[in-house]
Amino acid sequence: MEIRKISDEIAVSPQIAPSDLKAIHAAGYRSIICNRPDGEAADQPTWQEIESAAKAEGLETRFIPISGGMVGDEDTAAFRTALMELPGPVFAYCRTGTRSTTLWSLAVAGQKDLPEILEATSKAGYDMAGVARRIVNGGKTPTDTGDAKFDVVIVGAGSAGIAVAASLKSRKADLNIAILDPADVHYYQPGWTMVGGGIFEPQTTAKEMGSLIPKGVTWIKSAVAAFEPKDNAVILDGCRVVKYDRLVVCAGLKLDWDKVEGLRETLGRNGVTSNYRYDLAPYTWEMVKSLKEGKAIFTQPPMPIKCPGAPQKALYLSADHWKREGLLPNIDVSFMNAGGVLFGVKEYVPALEQAMQGYNVDVNFGQNLVAVDGAAKKAWFEDGEGNRTEREFDMLHVAPPQCPPDFIKVSPIVDAAGWVDVDQASLRHKEYENIWALGDVANTPNSKTAAAARAQAPVVAENIVDDIAGRSPTAIYNGYGSCPLTVERGKIVLAEFGYGGVVMPTFPKWLVDGTKPTRLAWILKEQILPPVYWKAMLRGREWLAKPEKVSASK
Fold first, then answer.
1. pLDDT band for position 239 (cuts 50, 70, 90)
2. How far apart are the first and last CA of the chain?
3. From its record, what is one biological process in GO terms (predicted)?
4. What domains sit in the chain, N to C, each tagged with a CATH number?
């Protein structure tokens, strides 16, 4: 007998024997549901035998047989009623446990969201992707047949999504393209560091989404619930279905604030802030201006994260302000890094170490933020062995833990870690040849930055157009990413690198030496990159981003 726990309320199992009921009762279960009809196999005990043994143990029982593996809406309703009426926790079984798991998934569809259901059933060993559309539809069989169909469907209207749509249109104007995204506002996220440093106004980093969707591209203002790659379909919230010939996934990543105990409750007050959110970056600058003495802590979570230099950028700009105001001797600045190095590309580390030393920063490696008590002004960090350290603070800048979005993580297009599984050169899915991915959601081993998306978008566009024309994809992505590290107001270490940490400077060294702080790199960040983002990248103008090509025979 196998007890496969789905939640605290229910466990499922393949076929059980009457002799198993004692152990089931001992494990704490109070009710039994049978979802297997009698007579499916010669060696199968009858429901009467199971029921008799269950009642002898004082267990409640319910018989909801599912014939032929077909779970109907009426079966779901009966199972839902049983869950409400029977004392829990409940133990359900059938031949393999799949029918019982399916019934539970559909029965709780109105109470739990799809990712939560898929994750719980997957941990129990059951794949419920096949009934995802019914789950999204509240557990009922969908009847809508008016599904939309497009040449290319793009999931996500962030920097990667709009850029790839614009690049596709610039190459093949007649493509019928849809972008799926529920957001009303599009953000220039690289600007939030500058907002937190008092350089940019927050409103300059935001524009209405509708104003940025490329001409001729359909914007479907809805969230994606699930993927059905074998049927070339995407399921939207509300159970609408969008079909595609080719799919591009660029859904970004999830900021997992809840992974740090007590963090969400104190964000934006008690001195706890983060430049990773539009509404919080101004509070960072408020805290920096108001802090005259005390302890300031800046954190960095385990990789991968969006813009791995951002946690340091917040520190440098804050410390630079305090230094200019003559306050730095009164403020203890600490950098608590869950990783083991200051930066992943060694050529840029000396300049960053010099900056940390110049601000007299207490740099700590292998220290991961796990809990915050904002009211008490305390934070707790753990090392790799689980040893916990308490730190007091007056200001705490948090870079949150980050992971794939929930609806991506439980989809059939991801690797074991939950990122979309693509070839790192072509950005084409390793299993489904009509799917591509780029940006933060892809499992390519590059730095997750806007610069990476700027380089990836033309590669995906070029390869999709090649594919439509019947050619093998010829554009390759070399892993390029850029991280302008604002070591002080007015100077930047312009880190540019590709796969394997290979330094890939855009400009000659005599013009911009990326390994050292320069004024020219600051001008690039402050004055040049924002208009390049809004007026070039998001409009398909591939400034310094023409894709590298290889012959199809390679």
1. low
2. 53
3. sulfide oxidation, using sulfide:quinone oxidoreductase
4. 4-136 (3.90.190.10), 149-253+404-549 (3.50.50.60), 257-402 (3.50.50.60)
